[in-house]
Design a protein that fits this description.
Layout (H helix, E strand, L loop, with lengths): L9 H4 L11 H24 L3 E4 L8 H8 L3 E4 L4 H6 L10 H4 L3 E3 L6 E3 L5
Parallel strand pairs: 1-2
Antiparallel strand pairs: 3-4
Length: 122
């Protein structure tokens, strides 16, 4: 299986425009970034004959990759752990921003909720 991983600003992955400016410049810039991302996905799907797109994205927020997957007949899944599952596993809300609740020598794998502790840490 071939894997392609794309890293990008989370704001770009959603359909909605989040920027706001009095001139409209920020909105136009954000839209151009989203359009570029959409075309990059289409190109990579065609080049690599992609059959599945997995994406970590906010639940309930329409995502560009989901739209592209639907239009290109690729399967799609949001692989971000749902907030209800996270809560059931005792993972604090916004844990990624709260280093005190998780610890700097620990990491939670979002897809599984597993907590990994670096050797020698408490």
């Amino acid at each position: 299986m071939r894997v392609l991983i794309l890293g990008l600003n989370h704001q770009i992955q959603w359909v909605k425009i989040f920027s706001s400016s009095t001139t409209g410049d920020l909105e136009r810039f954000e839209q151009s970034q989203k359009d570029h991302f959409r075309e990059l996905l289409r190109k990579r799907i065609a080049e690599r004959k992609v059959q599945f797109i997995g994406e970590e994205t906010k639940h309930g927020e329409p995502a560009i990759a989901h739209e592209v997957a639907d239009s290109e007949l690729s399967r799609y899944a949001n692989i971000e752990m749902h907030p209800d599952v996270r809560a059931a596993r005792g993972i604090p809300a916004n844990y990624e921003n709260n280093h005190e609740s998780v610890g700097t020598d620990c990491a939670v794998q979002p897809a599984t909720g597993r907590l990994y502790v670096r050797e020698g840490s408490s």
